[in-house]
Amino acid sequence: MESRTTCWPCWFGVNRSTITRAIAEVRPLLAERGCTVTAGVRLRTLAEVVDHLGESGKTGIIDGTEIRIRRPAVGRKDRDRFISGKSKQNAVKAMVLTDGDGRLLFCSPTRPGSCADITHARQLGLVKLLSDGPAIEILVDAGYQGLGAQTGGRVVTPPHHKFKKNAPDWYEEMHERQRKANSSRRIRVEHGIAHLKNWRALARREHASDTIQAIAGLLSHQQAADLTSSQQR
Known about the structure:
By secondary structure, the chain is α/β, with parallel strands linked by helices. The chain has one domain. The protein is about 40% helix and about 15% strand. α1 (about 15-30) packs across α7. The longest helix has 28 residues, at about 170-195. The N and C termini lie far apart (about 45 Å).
C-alpha cells in the first residue's frame, strides 16, 4: 500500500499545476452562470432578480454575510480595509438575496469587511433598481435601515426604536412583537447563507468574488433540482 502522504493527483498522473490552471479556468465560468431558478432559467444580475420577483409576486430577502479570510500580507496598503467593524476579524462580505422559501437568487461580488451592508447595497444599485422597478417586497435587517424611505417602501426593515430611554411598556411590547415578526420572515436567508459558508474554499481571499458566486450558482442548481424532483413524486 502506498504511503498516506502520497498526493492524490499522482494517482492519475496529473501535475498540481495542471489542476490549478484548470480550476482557474473553470471558476469564472461557474461564477458567470448565475443562480438557477428552473431548468434552463438563470438569474445573473441583480436587475434580473428584481424583475423575476416582480413577475412571480414573491418576497425577496436580503442579508449581508461576512466570510473570514487569511490576513493580507504585512505592508499591503489596504490591509486595514479587510478588518470588519462588526466581528473585528479579517473578512470579506457579500450580499445574498433569496426568495421567501430560502432559494438562492443572487450573490454579489465580495467587498472588504470594512464596507457597511447598506453601502454595499447602494453600490450594487439596489436603490435605483427598486425605485424604478416593480412593486415588490424586500425584507432586510437593521443594517439596511433607511432604504425603505429611499425605495418607496419596497425595502422592509425592522421597526426603528424611537425611544432612547424610558420607553413606555406598551411601546416596548409592540416593538418587540414587530421585531420578532420581521425576524421570523427573514430566517430563510440565514439558511441559504449557512450552506454557502460551509465551503472551505471561501477561506482564501484571492478570487473570493468568483468563488462565492460559483458556489452560489452550484447550490441554486441543486435547490432547483431538488424542487423538481419533489414535484414529480
